[in-house]
Amino acid sequence: MSFVILAIDHGWQMKGYGPETPQMEAAKQAFMTVLTRVVGNGSIGLICEESNPCYISLAQEFAYNCNPRIPWKNIIMTAQERLEAGIYDKLLRRESHCVEEPPGSGSYRTVDHRIPEDDVREQFFGLECIEAMRESQANAALVLCGDMHVEALKRKLEAEGHQAITNHDLIPQCYWQ
Hints:
With about 180 residues, the protein is of the alpha/beta class. It is built from six helices and seven strands.
């Protein structure tokens, strides 16, 4: 199995439902350009995405509208699954700090700190992707997940004997440590 793992920002992965800033529109357009390019050659037979299940994501709608339709799978770990895995409370209390972005602007952005429980989630993401690949009988999948998880997920998929490449083109600055 072959995976292309694309780093995304959860702030712009969802379909808009009202007015958006020019910066948000530009980020979404850049995402759609990369998505179209990666899927465009026809080798991607599945899209797996870490996404809020309460909303339609841009990639979900894109996959639905493709002809032929591309199967799409949400690989997010639900609150119940987090509880059962014993990581729910730790994820809620994740350490973070804020940075002013850009400096002097008065706008702040949260920088999340990685915790051991992220490893549990990434293992879950990998297993969900592999299972979805088997079910769809696809040879290659595009995986969309937060930048924090991309390289760890790649290592997990490779450890299972799969090919994986990563793409961080849409993430100009790291907001995790």
